[in-house]
């Protein structure tokens, strides 16, 4: 079957891989000159099913109010004259109950663990390398209050059979020795040994190269303007280079999907939440993280990607602008310097900001719509690198009318 995949981020490209493997004739379209040039470009590099969970959590609305008054707050709210932002915020708050959190967390855990298994299988099949590592993630705490929270988190992890261990600060330093030089004191940590790391942009680019060799067509520098319909089917995609047609269409357009779907009567609550990253070359490898450290205090994740360190964090709810605000970028830099002060020359960092395509409840939207040949693969939010392979496999299964390997309850348009 001829399939058009709209979007060459990690989500669209991974999906193209499974569709091509299933024997389809696949074309991937993107407005950028290459793959993974938007949100998939500079993320924190964590493939972390252990951490997968909704941001809409009990107590979160109170934290947001407190953070409104902090300079380097992990969450920044910039109100817009945009009804979509307010609808999204209202739905987010409605999901901050104990019951909704439990339901949403279970849904995200299901897709995230499945997806990691798909990524590992793809890696073995293709031999693809992307500055990847399998050294786990160490969450570190700076206060006793944060450490108390780890005990609650550990119970949740145990309920999902996620390998984990609460560690003392000395044990945390044994796992990540460079933390011995941290300029902040640690109260302890939570280690998730099975999580992985890797450069999402490198993965996507190399996967796209492999796919191109396998016959997948990539049409870059092509902006999609509208989805065209005929009866209950999509008849084509209107782009700035003319109309493109296929038998099936996969929407992997992240934050741009809602505005293209709304004219078709499909209203998906995906809204951008901006994050910031800094990348720096490792100066002294002994002083750098071995794998990945998640600083609970600043909510900044610091990951070793080959000879580089990537630190990323901040959730800024303020529209579609991707410029890096100096205060927020400085906050991320401050956090990585505090943990690994001697790892690099921090005067030589590169800054980046990207928009997480977030749903208010957390899980993505996968699968069919009221149009027979239109399939969604959007809204992976802060976990899109972790979830891309699993979502791609599921969407390929759905197009072929195969039963996906996991229960899709809560991952489709029909969710409650
Ligand atoms: C700071 C930060 C840190 C993160 N850290 C992690 C992490 O550690 N682990 C993790 O799992 N996830 C992480 N994420 C989330 C992850 O990066 C995203 O979920 C993921 O990249 C989304 O992939 P995507 O393919 O859906 O979106 P994108 O990569 O944005 O791809 C969408 C594509 O659609 C194209 N497009 C859009 N509109 C059009 C149009 N009209 N015409 C043509 N093309 C169009 C774009 O050019 C783009 O290439 C992080 C995100 C941020 C911002």
Order of helices and strands: EHEEHEHHEHEHEEHEEEEEHEEEEHEEEH
CATH-derived topology of one domain: D-Amino Acid Oxidase, Chain A, domain 2
Q: What is the multimeric organization of the chains shown?
A: single chain
Question: Residue share in helices?
Answer: 25-40%
Query: Which geometry do the CA atoms define?
Result: globular
- Strand count: 20
The biggest sheet amounts to:
9 strands, mixed
- The CATH homologous superfamily name of one domain equals D-Amino Acid Oxidase, subunit A, domain 2
Integer average pLDDT:
96
The number of helices is 10
Q: Note the gap between the termini.
A: 32 Å
Radius of gyration over C-alpha positions, nearest whole angstrom: 21 Å
Name every ligand kind in the structure: flavin-adenine dinucleotide
Question: Would you mind describing this structure in some detail?
Answer:
- With 416 residues, this protein is of the alpha/beta class.
- The protein has a domain at 50-96 and 132-195 and 271-358: D-Amino Acid Oxidase, Chain A, domain 2.
- Helices cover 32% and strands 25% of the residues.
- The protein is built from ten helices and 20 strands.
- The strands form four sheets. Strands 4, 5, 6, 7, 14, 15, 16, 17 and 18 form a nine-stranded mixed β-sheet that branches. A six-stranded mixed β-sheet has the order 9-2-1-13-20-19, with helices on one face.
- Strand 11 (233-239) and strand 12 (242-244) form a beta hairpin.
- Helix 1 (10-21) runs parallel beside helix 7 (200-213), helix 1 (10-21) packs parallel to helix 10 (384-399) and helix 4 packs across helix 10 (384-399).
- The longest helix has 29 residues, at 98-126.
- The chain is globular.
- Bound molecules: flavin-adenine dinucleotide.
């Amino acid at each position: 079957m001829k399939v058009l995949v709209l979007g060459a981020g990690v989500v669209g490209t991974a999906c193209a891989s499974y569709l091509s493997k299933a024997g389809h004739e696949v074309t991937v379209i993107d407005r950028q000159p290459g793959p993974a040039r938007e949100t998939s470009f500079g993320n924190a590099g964590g493939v972390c099913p252990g951490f997968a969970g909704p941001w809409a959590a009990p107590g979160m609305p109170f934290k947001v109010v407190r953070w409104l008054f902090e300079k380097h707050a992990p969450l920044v709210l910039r109100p817009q004259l945009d009804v979509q932002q307010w609808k999204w915020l209202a739905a987010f708050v409605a999901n901050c109950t104990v019951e909704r959190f439990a339901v949403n967390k279970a849904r995200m855990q299901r897709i995230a663990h499945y997806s990691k298994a798909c990524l590992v299988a793809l890696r073995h099949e293709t031999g693809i390398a992307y500055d990847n590592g399998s050294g786990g993630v160490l969450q570190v705490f700076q206060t006793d209050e944060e450490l108390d929270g780890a005990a609650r988190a550990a119970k949740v992890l145990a309920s999902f059979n996620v390998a984990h261990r609460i560690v003392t600060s000395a044990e945390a330093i044994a796992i990540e020795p460079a933390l011995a030089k941290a300029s902040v004191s640690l109260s302890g940590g939570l280690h998730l040994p099975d999580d992985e790391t890797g450069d999402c942009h490198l993965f996507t680019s190399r996967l796209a190269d492999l796919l191109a060799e396998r016959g997948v067509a990539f049409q870059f520098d092509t902006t999609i303007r509208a989805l065209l319909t005929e009866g209950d089917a999509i008849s084509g995609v209107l782009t700035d280079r003319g109309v493109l047609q296929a038998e099936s269409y996969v929407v992997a357009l992240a934050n741009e999907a809602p505005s293209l779907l709304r004219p078709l009567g499909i209203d998906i609550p995906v809204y951008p939440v901006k994050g910031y990253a800094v990348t720096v070359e490792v100066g002294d490898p002994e002083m750098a993280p071995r794998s990945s450290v998640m600083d609970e205090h600043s909510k900044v994740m610091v990951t070793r990607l080959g000879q580089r360190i990537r630190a990323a964090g901040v959730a800024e709810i303020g529209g579609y602008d991707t410029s890096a605000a100096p205060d927020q970028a400085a906050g991320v830099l401050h956090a990585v310097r505090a943990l690994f002060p001697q790892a690099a020359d921090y005067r030589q960092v590169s800054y980046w900001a990207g928009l997480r395509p977030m749903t208010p409840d957390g899980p993505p939207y996968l699968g069919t719509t009221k149009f027979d040949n239109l399939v969604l693969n959007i809204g992976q939010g802060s976990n899109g690198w972790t979830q891309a392979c699993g979502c791609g496999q599921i969407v390929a299964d759905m197009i072929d009318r195969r039963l996906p390997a996991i229960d899709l309850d809560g991952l489709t348009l029909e969710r409650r």
